[in-house]
Design brief:
single chain, 107 residues, alpha+beta, Rubrerythrin, domain 2, three-stranded antiparallel sheet, elongated
Length: 107
């Protein structure tokens, strides 16, 4: 099963399609197991036609989550280190830093 950092999401505001390597893009000849980086350069989003450059990983470096969490006001370095490890590993299922902050677990 692919981790979040192995899946890429289209960043076009009206789309949100997620490329999952476990599924590939069989209607367009992309076999299951094909990593995002292995897609042909001319591959585009099957829903909106966006180019590969318009996709970001769901987790890990370069993801929207990564950038948003890093810029939270008041986030201490030690907290970021723990969050960074989890996001980088792709372990983001059930992860809600906003909820943790609201419960007082994050200062």
């Amino acid at each position: 099963m692919a981790k979040a950092n192995e899946m890429f999401q289209c960043q076009m505001h009206y789309c949100g399609y997620v490329y999952n390597p476990d599924e590939g893009d069989p209607k367009r000849g992309i076999k299951a197991g094909t990593k995002f980086g292995e897609l042909p350069d001319d591959w585009t989003c099957p829903f909106c036609g966006a180019e590969k450059k318009d996709f970001k990983p769901l987790a890990g470096p370069g993801s929207v989550l990564w950038e948003n969490v890093r810029n939270w006001p008041g986030l201490k370095d030690k907290q970021w280190e723990e969050i960074e490890k989890r996001i980088a590993s792709g372990d983001v299922q059930g992860y809600s830093p906003v909820a943790q902050r609201a419960k007082g677990k994050m200062v």
